[in-house]
Amino acid sequence: MRVVVYPDPILRRGGKRVTRFDQELADTAAQMFAAMYEEGGVGLAAPQVALELKLLVLNPKGDASDKTGELVLVNPVITSRKGWAFGEEGCLSFPDIHAEVERSVKISLTYQDLAGQERTLQAEDWLARIIQHEMDHLDGVLFTDRLTPADKLRVRPKLAELEQRFARATS
Known about the structure:
Helix content: 25-40%
Largest sheet: 5 strands, antiparallel
Oligomer: single chain
């Protein structure tokens, strides 16, 4: 399983609701964790590995040897938001690009676990930021869509480089 890099169009497709909760879904989540850790990330959404599913995995510690923070969210929906703050973000689909993004400080959400059981979660600060970033991928929204105009200008050369690399690889 490999992480898809911008501007691959799959990143804009988002994900479809998961309806089958089986061993294949659990295996997919495990493979996503492996890809996330290999790339040094803290979260990964299914569209980032070319899967059109509303599925994301995360570990706020980003440490494969400490799985205590691992979460798998299937069909997540944010039910409430509180406060706003800017914080630096990066994205495995945008290598070497980091910028400030405004996100809710506290969120509540519902989701299903790998068995299909509905769960609720309250998250704040770093965990809330990761969830919101990964949930954007499930809707085809990229973190660069949320940049300030100044940051969009600042990262434009790096985006152009990724676009050129993609064009060369697909021609």
